[in-house]
User: Fold these one by one.
Assistant:
Number 1:
Amino acid sequence: MIKLIVSDIDGTLVPDGTAKIDKRMYDVIKRLKEHGIVFAGASGRQFVSMAKLFSPVKEDIYYITENGAILRDAKKVYKMNVIERPILMEMIKDVKKLKDCDIMLCGKDTAYCEDKSEMFYWMRDSYRYNIEVLGDFKTHLQDDIAKMSIYHKDNAEAIVDEWFTPKWGDRFKIASAGIMWMDIVNPGADKGSSLRALQEHLGITREETMVFGDNLNDIGMLEAAEESYAIGSARDEVKAAAKHVAPPLSENGETQVLLKLLEELER
């Protein structure tokens, strides 16, 4: 029997960078809870953004945030994997060599950038992030950082993979989080490892877990669940890694699967 359901957010539950969630999901999460099934959101997003998205049920779910670097509920942080400051500053120097890319640093509750760029306004207004403009990171950054995100308006993966990933990929987990984003976290801080930590915390097995995803940073989660679903609009690599393929996001594929599960439970 399924006891834990974990879902990616952007590209799986909502179109990238929006809050356009299928409102039926709130009722679905409440009904799942009545059957003893825990729901968790897993995203490259920060907790503040995710809590706003799930506002009607924010106290009822768990959160895997910053691409797996932080595991928490609405009140308590269970795990935060911090990038060492000297190495972080070295990577920042290298990212600044990448053409037309921007940097976002993510702490427990706040994200940081150096100036009011296109990325800043998009994160603040569309993702509804708690984000601050610091100026020079080296001079002004004080917070612990769990994730660094590299942003490019349409080609982040190709630009980062040209030489940055070969240089840093053996020391950090570098994964695509959509065409505009490459996320960098410590080894062992991906969504899959955080899901396994959540399973251990709850006493729930792989066989009792269902996962939904669409992008490369979701594959670790899919591997940690017996019932793994790639959304129909997912990348081919994700479909290959998943046990099932759900209808696409445009048809609210995850909602369809969960409503069917609830129908079976409520017969």
Number 2:
Amino acid sequence: MNKNTFETVKLAKGEMNIYDFGAVKLHAYKTNDFIDDEVFVVEKNGKAVIIESPCFFDNNQELEQYLKDMDVEGMLVAYHGAGATFLPDVPKYATQNAVDYSENGGGKALIDNFTNAFGDAFDSSVHKIDKIISEGRVTIGGIDFVITQTQEAFDVEIPEINAVYTHMLGHDCHSIVAGAAHADAIIAQLNDYIQKGYDLILTSHYTLEDLKDAKTKIAYLENLKTIAKSCAGAAEFKAEVQKQYPDYSGENYLDMTTGFFFG
């Protein structure tokens, strides 16, 4: 499946890009919210499973309306634990470390920051997880998923469409890199995707990407480490990254990366 082969449905705020695999459809919801969230709906035989949740009230309502004719069987809540007013009666699935991340860890800190930044527009309530899942295969609504636990939460393979979901990629935008060791971990993860030969990579903050994009991101991460070694401080590092990647979006993420590399 080519990442650019989809049908687009324009919604009032966001838009839905629909990828048709025959027996399975993938609905990629571009929220157009303040943090560029993406939410994914995997549909098969009229049943649907959602990967991640929107976290702004207007997006919650818009996506619920879009899903009204589908039988939503469950939601996989990984890195985005906020937005609990969205489909409150649908069963929520997560690993234990994802629960900890959203309730007490780095995810909780992000939720607090977003609440302060966006106020009443942001749904800061945290999804209550109904079913704790472990690594390996899980079947929801007749659709198989393969769960891989990460340091923060978990990634999701969708074998029927040869795709994988992870939190962040973005081949032409900055992303949060928590130092050289974290960069190496991301590189190892992306090399694993390349080895497995996925057709599509789904992420929470970007349109669908492919293995060519993964290779581009690996080169960026390797260079990020090189730049960090050559710089004496945060200001110099940020300026050099901006100089080498002038067209990259996500400056707020670059600020966070700078903080991780230079304390």
Number 3:
Amino acid sequence: MPTLYYAADADHSLIASRKVAVIGYGSQGHAHALNLRDSGIDVRVGLRAGSASRGKAESAGLRVLSPAEAAAEADLVMMLSPDTSQAKLYAEEIAPNLRQGDALFFAHGFNIRFETITAPEGVDVAMVAPKGPGHLVRRTYTEGGGVPALIAVEADASGKAMALALAYADAIGATRAGVLQTTFTEETETDLFGEQVVLCGGLTALVTAGYETLVAAGYQPESAYFECLHELKLIVDLMYEQGISGMRFSISDTAEYGDLTRGPRIINDQVRAEMRRVLDEIQDGSFAREWIAENDAGRPRFSALREAGAAHPVEQVGAQLRAMMPFIAGGRERLEEVSGG
């Protein structure tokens, strides 16, 4: 079994003696900055002029500086701006202000793994990656709990980078739930694979295809929506709480038999082979290069695909049905409160 670290394993003095700059104030940025502050850490937020998040950070009582000013003032810089903007932001405003003995932290390994950011000699490079969205990182902290996190060290110039990462994880509440050591490569590749094949790409494609199949066969769109999307939360919650076997114990025997016999026909050898190709594209950098090029070009394909997805009938039917179920609106409202960059 891998080792999990908890609060008793962290040396709070290592982070308490640092001046921390949180670069970005979106989902993760707001949670890190507020949790650090409430843990007694000297924190400031780095945002570019005109950022829509400036007012939110200031109204929360945080000091807001430019990214360059924040990096110059701090000796630990946590990069929480979007992956595709980090390299340019780092080169222009962070790198010129890093000094020997500083620490450069990330919550996702993308830019280190694909070498769009390279830290100078004498700077610790580490990762603290909570395994949950920012609003959950913040809420659980205020409730006295925490969200599990991954930590990794890419460069240990000080000899204490691992201990410093653990102390940072402790200050945002992660050690209350448990912290697992990994590497930048493992975190990046598994995270991208999970997003593309299961959690986002695979799931949305499966839901959409199921909905289309039922509607094409003559069933009501509303029935198709309930069966292929709405009830998904029940199954995911059961799996989250009890694992796959626990979920199967909780459903009917009819549902379980269909699961066991028909599921492998949907996720067959052809699908598994395509999963492997997707993983290959992640590992060899093809996906990273494609995504960076897409951003450099102004995101034309991304925008077109996003618009097409939003216009799909399953979204239109779902919006109408969700409007009739106000009890499920709370999560979206919470996300909208913390959105920003």
Number 4:
Amino acid sequence: MDIKQAFNGSSAYIFFIIFKIILAVLIFAVGWVLAGSLSRTIKKAMVKSNIDNSIVSFSNSVLKVVLRGIVILIVISWCGINISSIIAALGAGLVTVGLALKNNLSNAASGAIIIINKPFKIGDYLETNNVSGTVQKIEMLFTTLSTSDNKEVVVPNSKLTSDYIINYTSNDKRRLDILIPIKSSTKLSDIKPILNHVVNKNENLLYEPSTDVLVHSFEDGIVNISLQVWCTNKNYNLLKKTLQENIKTEFDKNNITF
């Protein structure tokens, strides 16, 4: 017997439809929350297993989409709609949808490439497309950077695979170059001892590779001296700050003007 015939009168059938809608909403709400909870549980398990943070972030992003997509299909099925016909309709419109979502599909494919090839990972400091920052998240469609002044920059993954990337933290060591403009009348023999003194008393740099003091370029009445020192990535900003301050202090003591 048809379900409609189980109810006597239109009022009873209306109540049945309302009950079914309410139940569908409850199934959707509970399923949505459970999907989020399951994805978080799997994420915690991956973190405990010491899986790379980039893979964890990307996998969690994909997992959320898949689980919540399943919830939507379950609700549609509960409402009595034939899922197979929906899948067939989606298949028929795949080309149209693909063209409409080509940017998102490109970003998703680029996200997979990033995870597989690992040109960078969470925590790396990148420069790309005139934007620089620390990688916070690698998700299915986007990568999130945090700039040094605490701005959040969301970059489409396709941009990161199609353009250049400078990864400042992929290697343990990094060279710091400080350009010092001095008057051309100042003797280089007077500058080098001062710079060596400043370098030798700084604990934030490395002594291998060795420090170099070079003539970088000439301008009208100016000689640009390049001080090149090496440090670990984590000490780069601190070393830059302290060296510049100490150079200025020592130059003032020796009456050398920039």
